[in-house]
Structure prediction request, 457 residues.
Amino acid sequence: MQRGLTDKSTIAALATPSGRGGIGIVRISGPDAKSIAKIVTQKNLTPRQATYCNFFDDDHSVIDQGISLLFPAPHSFTGENVLELQGHGGPVVMDMLLSRVISLGARIAEPGEFSARAFLNDKIDLSQAEAISDLINSASQQAAKGAIRSLQGEFSNSIEDLDSRVVAMRLYIEAAIDFPEEEIDFLSDQKIQKSLSEIDSSFLSVLKSATQGALLREGINLVLAGRPNAGKSSLMNCLAGKNASIVTAIAGTTRDIVDEYIHLDGIPIRLVDTAGIHAAKDEVEKEGIRRAFDELQHTDAAIILIDLSLDKAWEKVVDQLLIEIPYNSTVKPLIVLNKMDLVDSLPTEQLYRAMPVICVSAKKGEGIESLKGLLKEILAIDFSEEGSFIARSRHIDAINRAYEHLKEGRNQLDQFQAGELLAEELRYCHESLCEITGQFTSDDLLGRIFSTFCIGK
Prediction:
């Protein structure tokens, strides 16, 4: 979006998906919305009241008939005059109606421009604007509910509450520095340390909730890796609940990346089946293994699958695979010992080299529910129906940067008694938090955010 942040002209767009449907809506926002309403409907519309009427072309012929809604500024979604023309959802009819509106002085809206104007006119903050897009693109019911909570301001409120405490602390310290005659000895004041500790705890709480919200929105990549014929494809099909991967007794059936989306407690998970890792000679197999390695380097979580019926000394197989696999070092794999139905006794280990271990039979579905529970624990999936909200990666980044400034400020105070440096770090902390709600942010960031929205939103 290039013009949308500064341009105040009247904009228009289809607010319903293209194609045929029972209803189609043309949305108009801007200073000319009232005059366009009067010309198109040939009526004086009553604000915020649905009016059944004809929609007229420039030669006074009827384009369509339907419902008109006028919302005068500032009592509208964008804060400007807004007109909605709700007609029949045929593409030809909608194009004719939109063309008529454009001929009367409006221009086609850019992606996200309606939401951007709502933000710029203080009708919503930036995180609420993003929640609109997240609600539209929700991949699960849990994600949709989280987006609604963010749209209603729950995430914004938690950030603003945290920020207000940071600002209050900064003002207290700066007052002590600027007005020494008030004899506020904040360096020896235990109130400062107590307040900083409370702010620290609040940061961790907000960060945990936001991290969960980001998982809810963006999902998780989970890669299945192991030797050929270890049962990766069978486990993939078992978790997906359908035959997503080909399963045969022939080792090396999977030679490419096969992925499938599943939901675990409302979290979208991209489940990735990969080629079996071994000393391949065939060029196709080599390419499949290279792609498996690439997935493992960029995954959020990984399962190393072992054929328990074949590899009694499974620990050695795990050690060898960890040498061969260039996986993301920040990701601790989960060891799944498959084909438990084919052995007489099962290993009792729950951890191996700090990696969780679990036995399953992908073919018979044994141990799968326990595996799902362990995955939820490892991935920190713990959503209550109440209180979860949607967050984005940029929110996590801003909170982390703010938290680092808080920690650096506390260090300056503890190590050097430098109250002025603590105050400065708290200022940076405040600015980072304000990026989330949009109180302090760049036009470039706003342009990138709103350009990802649908046209008409």
About this structure: The chain has three domains: 11-125, 141-215+390-432, 220-299+301-378. The longest helix spans residues 190-218. The first strand starts at residue 11 and ends at 14. The CA atoms of residues 281 and 287 lie 10 Å apart.
